[in-house]
Amino acid sequence: xxxxxxxxxxxxxxxxxxxxxxxxxxxxxxxxxxxxxxxxxxxxxxxxxxxxxxxxxxxxxxxxxxxxxxxxxxxxxxxxxxxxxxxxxxxxxxxxxxxxxxxxxxxxxxxxxxxxxxxxxxxxxxxxxxxxxxxxxxxxxxxxxxxxxxxxxxxxxxxxxxxxxxxxxxxxxxxxxxxxxxxxxxxxxxxxxxxxxxxxxxxxxxxxxxxxxxxxxxxxxxxxxxxxxxxxxxxxxxxxxxxxxxxxxxxxxxxxxxxxxxxxxxxxxxxxxxxxxxxxxxxxxxxxxxxxxxxxxxxxxxxxxxxxxxxxxxxxxxxxxxxxxxxxxxxxxxxxxxxxxxxxxxxxxxxxxxxxxxxxxxxxxxxxxxxxxxxxxxxxxxxxxxxxxxxx
Amino acid sequence: xxxxxxxxxxxxxxxxxxxxxxxxxxxxxxxxxxxxxxxxxxxxxxxxxxxxxxxxxxxxxxxxxxxxxxxxxxxxxxxxxxxxxxxxxxxxxxxxxxxxxxxxxxxxxxxxxxxxxxxxxxxxxxxxxxxxxxxxxxxxxxxxxxxxxxxxxxxxxxxxxxxxxxxxxxxxxxxxxxxxxxxxxxxxxxxxxxxxxxxxxxxxxxxxxxxxxxxxxxxxxxxxxxxxxxxxxxxxxxxxxxxxxxxxxxxxxxxxxxxxxxxxxxxxxxxxxxxxxxxxxxxxxxxxxxxxxxxxxxxxxxxxxxxxxxxxxxxxxxxxxxxxxxxxxxxxxxxxxxxxxxxxxxxxxxxxxxxxxxxxxxxxxxxxxxxxxxxxxxxxxxxxxxxxxxxxxxxxxxxxxxxxxxxxxxxxxxxxxxxxxxxxxxx
Lengths: 392, 427
Fold this sequence. Notes:
The structure holds two protein chains of two kinds. Chain A is of the alpha/beta class. Chain A has twelve helices and 14 strands. In chain A, helix 3 packs across helix 6 (140-148) and helix 10 (266-278) runs parallel beside helix 11. Chain B is an alpha/beta fold. Chain B has one domain: Thiolase/Chalcone synthase (Peroxisomal Thiolase, Chain A, domain 1). Chain B contains 15 helices and 16 strands. In chain B, strands 7-4-8-9-1-10-16-15-11-12 form a ten-stranded mixed beta sheet, with helices on both faces. A two-stranded antiparallel ribbon of chain B has the order 2-3. In chain B, strand 11, helix 13 and strand 12 (345-346) form a beta-alpha-beta unit. Chain B is globular, with a radius of gyration of 21 Å. Chain B starts with 6 loop residues before the first strand and ends with a strand. Strand 4 of chain A pairs parallel with strand 6 of chain B.
C-alpha cells in the first residue's frame, strides 16, 4: 500500500547501549555487541542463557506515583516518547487533541505481573497490588503517557511480536491518512529479561540455546541458532509532510509504503508483504533491506527467497540487530532507526552487518536512499515498511 | 484526503453467557434472561466479589466443530472462532468461499490469560515462608509451547486466518474495554483507504482467572451483590455497586458497499463512523462532567454525518459502576443536548455483565440486530432511579420503534473513550 506524504520527524531509542540514538549509532559504528550471558534468573531448566538486558535505566518521571503504578516497559516507553517528541521539536504537547499515540506490545507489563502472580498464588489475593489492574494490560503505556502529557487525541495499542511496533507505525500512518490526527507518536517497548517472560519465549523454540554470546545469534548462517532476547524501547514521530513543513520540522525520512500480510504460509506472507510495501515504486540499487532474520534455517531460507525474488540484484541486506538480538515489538522500529542512521551515514560501514550469503549482492555503492524493513511474528504475519531518505 | 468508501455490515456472530448465537443473545436481551452466578472454578475467598457471568461448559459443547478446538486453544480464541464462523456464514461467506484479501481485526483487553495463569502455576513452586519472589522456583520444563500460543493475543487472529483459510491484513487492537469499537473502527478505516473490501472485526474476551478477577476486585469495581447474581448488574440504578465480570465475543463482517451489493450480500446496516479519544485525566477515574467522553460522542457524530435529532437509540457503556454511569449520563447530555433525554438509552451489561474488550463488539452486534428488527432492547434490573442518571433507560420492556441511527459507547482504563454510529441501510 502506498503512503501519502507521511514523514518521520522525530526518533529516539533506549537500548542496551544507552539512551538516545547517538549511543546506538556509535555502538553500530564500532560493532559493539550488547549480547551477554544473563544467568538463570531464578529459573530451573531454562534454555536461554544469552540476552541483551537494558542495564541501569533511570526513567526520571515527573510524577513519582507513576513509578509505582507502572511496569518497566511502560517507564521505558514514556522516556523514549518524551525524547522522540523533543527530537521532533514537539516540546509543548499539552492538551492537544490532534496528537495520537500508537503503541505496539507483545505481552504488556509482564514483569509487574510476575510479582503479583506470586502474591496471588502463594500469599493472598489481598496482597495483590491495586495497580495490577492498570500496570500489566496492553493499553497501560498509551494511558500513562497520554495522561502525563495531557493528550486527548486518537490513540491505540496493538498486540503482536516482532512486528508490533511496525503495525503501530502503519496504523499511525493510516490515522494520518484518515485525518484522525495531525501527529502520531509511535512506540514499542520490551522489558523481557525476566524469569517468566523468558519462560514464555523459551517455549516457542525460536530462541538460541548457544551459551557463548558471540555465536548465539547468527542469522542466515546455516547454524540454526535462533535469536536472543533483547530489551529496548523505540519511538518515532510521524506526520503529514505538509504539517511538518508548515511547522519547520526536520524531516528524517518519508514512509513510502507498507504491508501487513497474514496467511497460512510464511512463504506466501513474505511474498505478498515484499510486493505490497514496494507500492509500485521502482527499485534502485541504493536500497538497504533489513530482514526479520530469525536465525532459524527454515525461516531464513523463506525470507532469503523472498528477498531474491523482490529485491534481487539491486539491494543490500543488513542485519545490525546481530548486535543485540530480537527486541520483539520494538525490533521493527529499531530497524527504522538504523535505516535512517545508515541513510544519513551515521552508522559507519554497513558491510559488517551484511550476512555472508548476501555479500556478493552488496555492490560497491555506500550511499543508500531507500530502505525496506521486514518483521515477522511467531506465526505467518509479515509486516513490511519502506522508507525514502528525505534528500532523495 | 482519500475519497470515502462506504462500509456496510453483512454478517454477525456472537458467543455470550446469554446465548452462543446472535439469535439466542437477541431473544435473551428481549426476554431479560440476565446472567450471573457464583464463581466456582477458582477460589474467591480472598476477594470481596464472588460473582460473574460465565459461558457454561454445556453451552460450549453446542458450538459444533469449534468445540473440538476448545481443547487446543485458550477460550478467548475459541469464542472468537465460533463468532467468526457465525459471522462469515451469515454474510454468505462460509465454507471457504472467501478467496480474496480480508482484514481480520479482532481485539482483546487481556488475551489468553487463562493459559498464562495455568502455566504459571504449573511452573512455579513455593520454596519458603515469606517474600514470595525470593522463594519461588520457576521450572521452565513444566511449561509447553501452549503457553505462548495460548497467551499471545494475536493468536486469536492467526487462528481465524488459519481455520478459515483467509489471508490479508491482520491486527489485534488491545485498548482494554474499548477494544471492540476500536477493532471495528480500525477495520472500517482499512476498508475506507482501499486496503481490502471485506473485514472480519470485533473482539473476544475470556478473563475469568484469579489474577484478572483480583485485579478488578482490588480496585473495588466489581459488584459484591452475591445474594442474587442475576440482578447484580443494574446500570443507572441507584443500587449499583460495580460491574459483573463477563466473557464472550462479538464479530461483524464489514464490507465496502458496492462490493456487498455486487455479490448480493445481506446488508444489515451501515457503519457511519466512529471516534476515539483519550481523556488525559486518570487511569481509572472519570470526570463527573463527562467532558472528554462528550467530546468523543460529538466528534463521532460529526464524522458520521449525524445530528442529535437523528439518533434514535444509544447503547451505553453502562457498566453498573457509580462513576461510569454518572459520567456517561453527563457525557450523553453534553453531546446530545436536550435531545439526550428523549433518546432511548439502554445498557446490554444489565443482561450480560461486562466482557471488557468484547463488550462493545457484542453491543455492536446487538445494535445491528436492533436496527434490523426495529426493537430497542431494554435495560434490565433498573428498579430505583438515581437522580444523577436521568435519561430514558428503557427499563424492563423492549420498545418497538424504527431505529434510523444508533450509537454505541465504550470507555476503558487508561482514559480511553470510543463511540461508533450505525444506521439502517437505505439505498
